[in-house]
Amino acid sequence: MSHTSSADTTDNTVYFGQQYLNLEQVVAVAKGAKVKLTDTADYVEYIQKGARFIDSLLHEEGVVYGVTTGYGDSCTVNVSLDLVHELPLHLTRFHGCGLGDIFSPMESRAIMACRLNSLAVGKSGVSYQLLQRIEWLLNNNITPIIPQEGSVGASGDLTPLSYLAAVLVGEREVMYQGKRQATKDVYLQLGIVPLRLRPKEGLALMNGTAVMTALACLAYDRSQYLSRLSSRITAMASLTLKGNSNHFDDILFAAKPHPGQNQIASWIREDLNHHTHPRNSDRLQDRYSIRCAPHIIGVLQDALPFMRQFIETELNSANDNPIVDAEGEHILHGGHFYGGHIAFAMDALKNAVANIADLIDRQMALVMNPKFNNGLPANLSAATGERRAINHGFKAVQIGVSA
After folding, report:
1. Rounded distance, CA 207 to CA 200, Å?
2. What domain range is 176 assigned to?
């Protein structure tokens, strides 16, 4: 699988089907980019071969988890062939018990993009028609109403993804044209016939990591912005406090060559115009929240590459169970729905971002406090005279930053 981009950024379209999808493309789809599913004869045949292989196993009375058996602990319970076609629908329905707030349309679009890309790998035994329906939903900006709570991740995003599966069969609710509506009403309005899920398709839609991966893509995108933003805020704080710009010198950082940390130091000294107009203060050393900012923000910047690897590998994987190898005619039972890589990356991201939040809190406190702000008024209040006693300036803002 090539690691080249699968999107043509000139027409704001993201392409799906055996191409490598990156984080930025998921974010683009989340924000409204059109999608295009590969429609070459070879690719369509590749996808359809998996669906036909599942059909052939049914004719041969083969045992396939979640197709001719129950789910989870019920995998030892055989499902008779006359009920096999009802099983996917029952799977989507009994998981329709999500709780909590609903995902935004942007988050739902990211989820749909991640599930589409995983199924488009061609190892899930679904039909090409199912992939086309997800493509159609995205391009018409019809997004499932998905509650945020309900699955543990270790068994895949079963409950939230059941809301996507339900929409494909014309059930539950969608967001369309800015309104929350019954799916069946939207389909009736647009003349769309609901899908009838084939054997394995309910499980293939639900038993995967698309929700956690989608949220990881969006969180990663925000964290990249935060890294750059917090570097600029640090430069502003240093300038405000008449700080010593030598704290960010390239010779200094060459002695501790973490590449991400050095990138942060470079951004700060560029914002301070250090080499052209170095700023030296009476203080030999500024406080930690200024002087150590590249080291704190740099942890996030240095962690981003491994997080990208974890997220994009998951994004471009077949992550349901079982895996269907139509070419070799194998059904492979495993645990690809397990979300450990995404969970680890997001736990690490949460730690790095929390440290930056602490950093910005301390920088704000420095600027506000007359003990440390190098002559600026307390709480940055511009009030003078008798009005000074009743004006607390940005004190509540500082409390908000701490919160």
Report:
1. 10
2. 7-208
